[in-house]
Design a protein that fits this description.
Elements (H helix, E strand, L loop, with lengths): L1 E5 L4 H11 L5 E4 L8 H9 L3 E4 L12 H19 L17 H9 L9 E2 L13 H9 L4 E4 L6 H21 L6 H20 L1
Parallel strand pairs: 1-2, 1-5, 2-3, 4-5
Helix pairs in contact: 1-6, 2-3, 5-6
Length: 206
């Protein structure tokens, strides 16, 4: 389960409580511009054992700005997280806003060895209300066994969207528990991928 554009003052703490009650860990792709004044929430995310990743600083569409501006935005996003956590990590896995990544930024992130993370299931909380389906996560878990889900935890005036996110999470976690599906963070999935890759190379060499 992944969440973009936060942290939000209202929704993020509620999401953290739902995850804690279900002993589940998630991944939060933070927008740097939303961190100021919410540093304590960022620290709560980290203290809960969840992954903290970057969604850039200003939520830029990389196809509509210069590569230099886009790279600067990526760095600003990393710095905002470091400032909140009082750390010096410098680089965090990155999810491109709108899913758009230009070639120069792709090369830059690969050079920095930074994982680029997309999604396979959009919960739909930013879509028109008629398209919203709070059963989306649960139905996909039941049908295909899992997904990289995308929801949003930024502050907004429409409380019904927040309610839809919470109910989607709750139903998804219940479906996962019934189906025996484990909820992974991005870092856990990357570790599994590296292990499988290493094992495959070993088996091939033998």
């Amino acid at each position: 389960m992944t969440f973009d554009d936060g942290p939000g003052s209202k929704l993020t703490p509620v999401i953290l409580n739902v995850l804690a009650r279900n002993n589940a860990k998630a991944t939060f792709f933070l927008a740097g511009r939303n961190i100021a004044g919410r540093e304590e929430i960022v620290r709560q995310i980290a203290a809960g054992g969840h992954d903290i990743c970057s969604h850039g600083y200003d939520h830029l569409h990389q196809w509509k700005v210069s590569p230099i501006r886009a790279i600067k935005d990526i760095k600003q996003g990393w710095q905002a997280i470091d400032n909140a956590l009082e750390s010096n990590r410098g680089k965090y896995p990155f999810r491109p806003p709108y899913g758009k990544l230009n070639l120069i930024c792709l090369m830059y992130l690969l050079f920095c060895r930074v994982p680029i993370v997309y999604w396979s299931l959009n919960v739909g909380d930013t879509w028109p209300r008629a398209c919203c389906d709070q059963n989306r996560i649960a139905s996909v878990i039941e049908r295909v066994g899992g997904a990289v889900t995308l929801a949003h935890d930024f502050d907004r005036s429409d409380s019904s969207a927040d309610d839809m996110v919470i109910e989607s999470i709750r139903l998804g976690l219940n479906a996962a528990a019934k189906a025996g599906v484990k909820i992974f963070t991005v870092s856990q999935l990357l570790q599994l991928s590296r292990r499988k890759s290493s094992k495959s190379r070993w088996e091939y060499s033998v």
